């Protein structure tokens, strides 16, 4: 079997270098991208077997990359490789056309196996994430309402929402996101207003019900 041709898309140079070092001997890395524009250019220019795609990218995110590429090359296969294990991220990229979704704690051997399986037409998910997809199709998660509500929030507000729902104090959120406590308070107030919630307890319940935590 010839070596799979792979494009690696991630906005962190060090992470792309790490992936290249980890799997470069087993697959043929033919291109890289760090944002939507460079990713689309690399993919269209090389037509790889599989694209390793980060979900959160400058310029519109992983879903925008898939949308632009599939307009020209509908057969290119995408495998999401992300630090996020949030339900809306998983469902969002699968709906956009990804063939699988694995988290960045995956081993090099597992990642090579996932690439080969996606290239062969299989769907590949980290075990916990497969449950989100099944729940979405069974109706246990109301994906339409999740998308609609989350669309009202900025990316930063979503990050604050998730940390608050996980029980972080405002100071811990500020430290985690490198922003001031005052800014955290502003974001929380905005999230509560947009989602029509009264306090952080309701916010936590809202996020937990939608598998965002």
Automatic annotation (TrEMBL):
PROSITE patterns to which the protein is assigned, alphabetical: HTH_LUXR_1, HTH_LUXR_2, RESPONSE_REGULATORY
PANTHER family: TRANSCRIPTIONAL REGULATORY PROTEIN YDFI, TWO-COMPONENT RESPONSE REGULATOR
Top-level lineage group: Bacteria
Domain HTH luxR-type as annotated: residue spans: 146-211
Organism: Kribbella jiaozuonensis
Matches recorded under SUPFAM superfamilies: C-terminal effector domain of the bipartite response regulators, CheY-like
Family matches, as InterPro entries: CheY-like_superfamily, NreC/VraR/RcsB-like_REC, Sig_transdc_resp-reg_C-effctor, Sig_transdc_resp-reg_receiver, Tscrpt_reg_LuxR_C, WalR-like
Taxonomic classification: Bacteria, Bacillati, Actinomycetota, Actinomycetes, Propionibacteriales
Gene3D superfamilies the record matches: 3.40.50.2300
Protein known as: Response regulator transcription factor
Keywords: DNA-binding, Phosphoprotein
Positions carrying 4-aspartylphosphate: 54
